[in-house]
Amino acid sequence: MNKFSPHLWILALALFTLVGCSTLKLESTWKDRDITLDGKGGEWLGAKYYFEDSAISVGLINDEQYLYVSMMTENPMIRAQIMRQGLTIWLDPDGGKNKTFGIKFPLGKRGEEQEGERMDPPAMMDEMIREEIMQKLQESMTELEILGRDEKVLAKMDIEDTKGIEVKMRNVGGTFVYELKVPLVSREEYPFTIGANPGDTIGVGFLSPKMQMKRPNKMRGMGGMPPGGSGGMPPGGGMRGYGMKPMMPQDLKIWAKVQLASGSTPTLTFF
Questions:
Q1: Across all residues in the chain, what is the average pLDDT?
Q2: DSSP state, 248?
Q3: Are 208 and 201 in contact (CB under 8 A)?
């Protein structure tokens, strides 16, 4: 697949359609390898489910003490959404969609910051501009939040100071890699845990609100010519001023029932 193909923008819409109408039932893989959260994603071979039509994969591995979660995508729009809007991983020990324990990272941009920096569609289509924006955002994000019931912030801390929880994200060769490690069972030294045991079924949610986009300026990039003029744009065709149809931003919302491994290595399934 061409990582920089414009078709990735269309695939993003396919993702949101898929996760909006399907129920995921996944099985975690027993930890039979060393896992280093380095944002490279090499340890997840054979332990992730891949949405072929949407260029996104979710990986799940556990042992007696920890759950390891990964999310990877080659879709630049999803990466931009996560960077700007933030990403919350919800972990429900009862196997449902209860938002009682969540880890938000990255935190995204605050409302007032986004108001002055809404994404410009032409800039997002330019690979070099997009990568520069995303790199600056990523470098500035060093804190995470622990969320409780009603999305109340229970704690906010530097990602280097978390106890038991580890998180890493990185862009490698056009692939965005997000990795998370969370304690399963309660321990005195870990104030925040899922509260589940190997073999249990838990709920896992990936949530990120939709991006706010700038309204396209129909005069921009056309040498001052209005749509349908000698600038080469056919009347009424595509995005006004850009020659392509805009894709409406959507919420990223994936929920799955996850069967934790209990000592064996089950196969990941989808129903």
A1: 74
A2: P
A3: no
The conformation of residue 224, written as its DSSP 8-state character, comes to T
Question: In this structure, are strands 252-259 and 24-27 parallel, antiparallel, or unpaired?
Answer: parallel
The amino acid present at 246, given as its one-letter code, is P
Q: Is 243 helix (H, G, I), strand (E, B) or coil?
A: coil
Return the percentage of the chain with pLDDT > 90, whole number: 37
Residues counted in the chain: 271
Closest by CA position to 180, among listed 6, 46, 58: 58
* Strand bridging mode 29-30 / 56-62: parallel
Strands of 184-229, DSSP E: 201-208
φ/ψ of residue 20, rounded to 5: -80, -20
**Lowest-pLDDT choice from 107-121, 138-152, 197-211:** 107-121
Instruction: Please provide residue 231's backbone torsions phi and psi, each rounded to the nearest 5 degrees.
Output: -70, -5
Q: Structure pTM?
A: 0.71
Question: Coil, strand or helix: which one is 181?
Answer: strand
Q: In 10 A of CB 124, how many CB atoms? A: 19
